[in-house]
């Protein structure tokens, strides 16, 4: 049934649901649109509505072929809606679920598009804060690019920031999707443009591997890996491409490439990837069962029980009920330094060449445990030095002063 949104738009049919609201196919004065209607409890939050109006200029001003254009922001009674260009196609998560892994050329073509979109946003002082496959739309009506990839557009700009209002989330909580969260966010620092680069490199890794570099298990373990662990190389990945991923997954934000540099470097790499099939890697198995004498520091410190599902579907805000089982935003506590530095859930997930023995198998077990101990010992030393700010935030329990986290630190 058609429903009016403000005086200019009607919605007809649901395109999809996320944790912050529902996206509808709609009609506006200039033709079809997508309307993201925020959840009622968000729409009735006066502070959030104020922020929504404040963001208007920045969001409406973003105009780039690889960013989904926001046409209007509607505040009407209980309705709070973002009116966007309709992208006829699918989102990258759906494609990835279908294909499991993409050929390097197609993966890089998609990520290049998104890097270009991000470069424009960052230049305008806007940080996305929730780059992930769900927020990358593929325009099936657009021309085919390298590797047969359709144009990719980044969507959901500003939504993470809207939700992350000082009254709604404390400085001690994190907003985002665990698999894609940059280490500085885990440490409680304000998100700058480099968090988007980290998340985008994570998406690139995921397109190539079929899994994220630090995902798996309990969300707390995922957060800890971002801070303490090093990404493990993918078997068969061209070295030039691997180096770009490593650089953009650097723990120090300043060491990562900027979005425009990343786009340029990816374009340089593209011709080398022609005709390379999807990488032949097996997803690492779940963590091997902890050795009896190794204490699960995270579980002990937090009361967390068994590791959760591979992707944490923690609601954005209490009461949210995303009706899909896909990744969603997370609002969770900034872990304390001791939680970040210990426990066997922190082992980096090493991809295996197809058919190689599992890391948890008898043949590999002794080596794996030794390696885990070394990783954790190094991690403990690194985190002890690196988490001063995060530790303070975790301990303070105070609301943060309002911080314009969407202002980019980059020109
Ligand atoms: N501009 C658009 N045009 C066409 N479809 C869209 C558009 N924006 C979003 N969608 C579709 O609507 C669905 C829901 O999007 P939404 O942004 O609400 O959720 P999400 O990003 O999947 O999850 P979350 O908000 O929890 O991170 C997505 O599957 C996407 O494919």
Brief overview:
The protein is an alpha+beta fold. It is built from 14 helices and 13 strands.
Describe the 3D structure.
The protein is an alpha+beta fold and 411 residues long. It folds into 3 domains: 3-85, Phosphorylase Kinase, domain 1, CATH 3.30.200; 89-350, Transferase(Phosphotransferase) domain 1 (Transferase(Phosphotransferase), domain 1); 358-382. The protein is 36% helix and 16% strand. It is built from 14 helices and 13 strands. A 6-stranded antiparallel sheet has the order 1-2-3-4-6-5. Strand 5 (70-76) and strand 6 form a beta hairpin. Helix 4 runs antiparallel to helix 10 (259-269) and helix 9 (239-248) packs antiparallel against helix 10. Bound molecules: adenosine-5'-triphosphate. The site of adenosine-5'-triphosphate (ATP) has 24 residues, from strand 2, strand 3, strand 4 and strand 6.
Comma- or semicolon-separated keywords:
alpha+beta, binds adenosine-5'-triphosphate, ATP binding, Phosphorylase Kinase, domain 1, globular, disordered C terminus, 411 residues, Transferase(Phosphotransferase), domain 1
Tally of helical segments: 14
- Count of separate structural domains: 3
Major sheet, described briefly? 6 strands, antiparallel
Write the CATH architecture name of the largest domain: Orthogonal Bundle
- Strand fraction equals 15-25%
**How many angstroms separate the termini?**
46 Å
Mean pLDDT level: 74
Percentage of residues in helical conformation:
25-40%
| Ligand inventory | adenosine-5'-triphosphate
What name does CATH use for the topology of the largest domain?
Transferase(Phosphotransferase), domain 1
Unreliable sequence segments: 288-329, 342-348, 357-411
Report Rg. Answer: 21 Å
The CATH superfamily of the largest domain is known as: Transferase(Phosphotransferase) domain 1
What is the level 1 CATH name of the largest domain?
Mainly Alpha
EC number: 2.7.11.1
Pfam families: Pkinase (PF00069)
Keywords: ATP-binding, Kinase, Membrane, Nucleotide-binding, Serine/threonine-protein kinase, Transferase, Transmembrane, Transmembrane helix
Enzyme class: transferase
